[in-house]
Structure formats: structure tokens, C-alpha cells
Design a protein that fits this description.
293 residues; alpha/beta; Rossmann fold; 10 helices; globular
């Protein structure tokens, strides 16, 4: 499992998209986004406004996919090993969802530093970032960003739409990619972004994140106040959570606000590893033929 991005990666990104300009101080926000996406494992990520954070998001998605494939392979190998030990009579008596029981449970739970939930690996993981940029496709910056993503070998996770407006960008996200797992605003027009996006964010813990949510600019504050006013009823009814991280050493782009949508959220507590719990989770596939292929 990868524990972070490489120095070579950081050097390439800084060389092409410097984070140290007066109005683009994102040197800490980008690694934070990387870690959030690594933790949350989103499938569909959208961002409005590209920049220094874009390659970090893409690298996180690639690393997530690499980890997913590795864990899936390890778990499948355990299933195959367990299945090979069974007698023909035992195999014949197994139902499609009953092929991974107690003999392997200790191996899965007792010898791994992090306990994977096998059912998580039963579905496919195909992460992708949909980036929407107001600049036209022939702008030099847009071309430079595309070249950087390709040079980093991250273009397989990337769809860039240039010349977009905040008010109508969601229709460009493929229908099969909805709902949105993680939405990132790095441009402005935050209320319009909220109005366009929130209804399409996954209700059981989907994330909206806004850059630069503390500012001395009056029009910027008024825009944010409208976002917070729209969120207030959902915060009060516990259908959303909000947290702002502040970088106190900077004048601009000094904060990140994260909104977690909970309209369909159900609490789950995985603390009792009983046989019933194991039976419900230790399923990597709907049939033995899938797992043994």
C-alpha cells in the first residue's frame, strides 16, 4: 500500500503549476485533499476550477485503485486457498454465498494490520476525476495542465471539460457516474456551485469541499454566507455536517471547508466480530466461479 506521493511527483507539479503565487497558496490544501480522497475511496470526483490540487486528486485515485486491486487479489487468494482444502462433499454442500467461513476468518482478521471488509471488494472500483474549467480548451494553461497529467501517467483517471459555466456543468457528468462522491470547488461562485451540485452528491456521506472560505473580500464573504444559509437547516436537522480547516499563516486561499451530506446516512458500528458478522461480510463475489476465475 502506498503511503504518499513521491518527491518526483511534487517536483513535476511545482515546475508546471506553482502553488506559491500570491493568489494560489495551495501548498497544504493539495496534500490534504490527497489524504481525504485516499481515506474516503470515492468513485466519482468532480472539481470546478483546476490547478495545483488537480494532480494530487488524480494521484490519490490511482493509488486507491492500486490498493483496491492488491487487497482484492490477496482476499481472492485466501478464498482459493480455503476452497482447495475442502472435500468434494463439502464443496457440493456450499451455497454461492457461503464459501468463506471460519477457517479463513482468523487469517483475515488475525494477521493483518488493517482489517479489510471483503464485501467492499465485491464491487468494481473505477475512480475518475471530472474537471471543469472556465478557460477555453485552446488556452495555454489548459494545454499545460493536460500535458502534465499525461506526463504523470494519470490521464486514464481524468476527464477535462474546458469553457464551462458553473450553472450547467453537472449535465456533462455521465449519468452512470452519478451520484457524485466528492465535489471540489477551487474556483469561486460557491453558491452557484452549491445550487448546481448538492442535489447530485451521494446522500450517505458524500462530500462537498470549498477552497478559500475565509476572506476579507466583501463579495466573497457574501457568496459564502448564502451557502451557509442554505446549509443551516440541514445542519440543524443533522442531515449535513460542516468543518472548516484554517491555515492561519496565510492572507489568501487560507482555508478549506468540508460539507458531508447525511440525508440517507445510516450509522454502522463494526465492533462485534461474531460468526453472523463474518458470514455477512466475507463475500467477494456472488458465485464461486467469479472468485475462482
Amino acid at each position: 500500500m502506498k503511503l504518499g506521493f513521491s518527491e518526483e511527483f511534487v517536483g513535476k507539479v511545482i515546475a508546471e503549476i506553482t502553488p506559491f503565487q500570491h493568489l494560489s497558496g495551495t501548498e497544504h490544501v493539495a496534500p490534504l485533499l490527497y489524504q481525504l480522497i485516499r481515506m474516503l475511496k470515492p468513485q466519482t470526483v468532480v472539481e470546478f476550477g483546476s490547478g495545483y490540487t488537480t494532480p494530487y486528486i488524480l494521484q490519490a485515485l490511482k493509488d486507491n485503485e492500486d490498493d483496491f486491486k492488491l487487497n482484492q487479489k490477496l482476499l481472492k487468494n485466501r478464498v482459493i486457498k480455503h476452497f482447495a482444502k475442502l472435500s468434494q462433499a463439502e464443496r457440493a454442500g456450499m451455497t454461492p454465498d457461503d464459501w468463506l467461513l471460519d477457517p479463513t476468518t482468523q487469517e483475515v482478521y488475525g494477521q493483518e494490520p488493517v482489517v479489510p471488509i471483503p464485501s467492499f471488494y465485491a464491487r468494481s472500483y473505477r475512480p475518475r476525476l471530472f474537471t471543469f474549467e472556465v478557460l477555453p480548451s485552446d488556452d495555454a494553461y489548459v494545454s499545460k495542465l493536460s500535458r502534465l497529467v499525461a506526463d504523470l501517467k494519470l490521464d486514464g483517471y481524468f476527464t477535462l471539460s474546458a469553457g464551462c459555466r458553473v450553472a450547467d456543468y453537472v449535465k456533462l457528468v455521465p449519468q452512470e457516474r452519478l451520484p457524485i462522491d466528492f465535489a471540489w470547488n477551487d474556483f469561486g461562485n460557491k453558491k452557484r456551485f452549491y445550487d448546481e451540485t448538492y442535489a447530485h452528491v451521494r446522500g450517505d456521506g458524500g462530500i462537498m469541499a470549498f477552497h478559500n472560505t475565509t476572506s476579507s473580500e466583501k463579495d466573497h464573504k457574501e457568496d459564502l454566507d448564502r451557502v451557509f444559509d442554505a446549509l443551516r437547516p440541514q445542519l440543524q436537522s443533522r442531515q449535513a455536517e460542516l468543518l472548516t480547516f484554517l491555515e492561519p499563516h496565510k492572507f489568501t486561499q487560507r482555508s478549506l471547508t468540508v460539507v458531508r451530506k447525511l440525508t440517507e446516512f445510516k450509522e454502522e458500528f463494526f465492533h462485534d466480530m461474531t460468526e453472523e458478522y463474518d458470514r455477512s461480510l466475507l463475500k467477494l463475489s456472488r458465485s464461486r466461479s467469479d472468485i475462482l476465475a
